[in-house]
Design goal:
The chain is α/β, with parallel strands linked by helices. Helices cover 39% and strands 16% of the residues.
Amino acid sequence: MPTGLSVFRKALNVSVPLTMDSPEQYMAVALAEARLAAERGEVPIGAVLVDNSGQMIAQSGNRTIELCDPGAHAEMLVLRQAGRLRGNYRLLDTTLYVTLEPCVMCAGALVHARVSRLVYGAVDPKAGGVVSLFQVGQDTRLNHLLDVEGGLLADECATLLRAFFRQRRGGAAAGIGQERLQSR
C-alpha cells in the first residue's frame, strides 16, 4: 500500500518530493486516496492524519467492500494505522483531513482518539455526524472537543462523490443530498 507522499505524487504525476505546508495540499492527498478508493469500487472518501509539525502520519481511502468491514471507513483506517505507528490510541496534536464530513461512528472515534482538529471537504446532509445531523465533536458533555472546519475543496470533494454515484446508478442524476432535493 502506498504511503507518505507517494500517492500524492502519483496523483499529480510528479516524482519529486513535495513540501506539504497548506491545508489544501493535505486535502489534495485525501482526494487522491478517495480516487484510489473509487478505482477499487469503494465510495470515494479519503483521509489523511497530520501532526502539528506538518508530517503526514497516515492516509487511506474507504475499504469497506474490500475488507468486508462496515467500520473500514477512511477515517477509521487512518486512526488505526496512526495508533499502531505511534504505539498509542491517543492521537494528540493531530489534524484529520477528510473529503466528506465524518459519520457518527467516525466522529466518535475522533473524540476517543483525542484528535485536535478536523478539516472536511463536503458536508453530508444524510449521515453527517459533525455538523449536518449531529455535532459529536462539539458536545460539551463529552470529554474531548474537536476544532472543526468544513468546506475545504468542498466542490471538488462533492463532485467526486456525485460522479461516482451517477456512474454507479447508470448515469442517473444522483449524489450526496440529491434525493432530498428531488423529493421537495
